[in-house]
Design goal:
CATH superfamily of the largest domain: Aldolase class I
Low-confidence stretches: none
Number of helices: 7
Strand order of the largest sheet: 1-2-3-4-5
Mean pLDDT: 97
Helix content: 25-40%
Number of strands: 7
CATH class of the largest domain: Alpha Beta
Radius of gyration: 30 Å
Oligomer: single chain
Order of helices and strands: HEHEHEHEHEHEEH
Length: about 240
Amino acid sequence: MVPFSTPFDETAVDFLETLDAPCYKIASFENTDLPLIRKVAATGKPMIISTGMSTAAELDEAVCCARAAGCKDIVLLKCTSTYPATPVNTHLKTIPHMRELFGCEVGLSDHTMGIGASVAATALGATVIEKHFTLRRADGGVDSTFSLEPEEMAALVIETKRAWEALGSVQYGPTEVEKKSILFRRSLYIVQDIAAGEFFTSKNLKAIRPGLGLPPKYLEIFMGKRALHALRKGTPVSWDML
């Protein structure tokens, strides 16, 4: 666990520097405070900026200000500044657009109930998830209604990891682990003994499992043709039979 903090004014940055804070978070309500962003950026440490309420132009100002002042590692968090937030107002499709627009890592500051929005954000490429935490919602507090309890936080970690791993890459064709499953496809088989010169028909040639013969798409090519040599029932079909 890496502890860090959110400064709300420039004196807080000075104080956090005495504690050697490894990175900084800019809250949504401060994301237009360019002097504060400039002060944080001057430390040269990574900066996470919540984007609640911000227009694209305001975010551009914040990102440009941070970069000009020396910050090289910026993460923008898609954020809806309502507490709690509803899924319909979360607009997760902004995440990949924001990454493309500003050329930085993007995550989600999630104020919705549960973990669904965070998992979906991960599937859209979010690399940072911010979620409020409480030991017990029943104890109350300003953010208790949308905070996760320990078991829920554990589920968030597990499910977002699964979502991230499931992203993979663009993939067609059998993966290495799927290759054994090709056996369970249907393919063409001799289902009755056939004498040399006998015609292939729907009675002696069928598409059945396993997938060791030619694919079923070649069935019509064989129909009405003569077998080149005698064939035994249970033989997978191959081109040398014609």
